[in-house]
Amino acid sequence: MRDCLRHTMLCSLLALPLALTSPQASAADSVVGRWKTIDSDTGKPKSIVEITQAPNGVISGHIVELLNPSKPNPLCDKCKDDRKGKPITGMEIIRGMKADGGGEYSGGTILKPDEGKVYKSKMELVEGGKKLEVSGCIAFLCKSQTWLRQ
Predict the structure, then answer these.
(1) Which pLDDT tens digit goes with each residue over 91-101?
(2) Do residues 98 and 59 lie in contact, with contact meaning Cβ atoms separated by under 8 Å?
């Protein structure tokens, strides 16, 4: 009985480092986390977006901080959906995204609050998960940005 108990404890101790490193290894493969958005026109940081994943696997993203806003506490005046007139800070801008595997995500939409436009979106982790390439398209008009992991 003692040998069995020792064996179980030894196996548990050996498995502990693997359990502790596993989430770190998968962090680079996951889009979940905080991202600094970079304006594709100016090259300047614009906001911090927190991306989360629901239990059903759906990815969403909320603006948690605006960096150097043009006015304090701006509202989404140009939005045409349920976000119209709501504060941009705290706003859900990524909706319905799903993992395709290999660090790629699609099937969702992204809102550009300063334009009030909603784009079909794709995202792809690059540089080992340090950067996120985000693109949005309406018909054949596409825009893309590279976001930086925080």
Answers:
(1) 999 999 999 99
(2) yes
Beta bridge partners of 60: 52
Q: Report the candidate in 83, 59, 85, 64 with the shortest Cα–Cα distance to residue 74.
A: 85
Phi, psi dihedrals of residue 42, rounded to the nearest 5°: -100, -20
Helix then strand count (H, E) for the chain reads: 1, 8
Which is nearest to 94 in space by CA: 133, 65, 66, 134? 134
Contact partners, residue 47, CB within 8 Å, separation at least 6: 36, 37, 63, 64, 65, 66, 67
State pLDDT tens for residues 129-139.
999 999 999 98
Hey, what CATH topology would domain 31-149 get? Answer: Lipocalin (2.40.128)
Query: How does pLDDT run across 3-41, given as a tens digit for each residue?
Result: 443 444 333 433 333 333 333 334 557 999 999 999 888
> Which residue from 100, 110, 107, 102 is spatially nearest to 79, judged by alpha carbons?
110
pTM of the predicted structure, to 2 decimals: 0.80
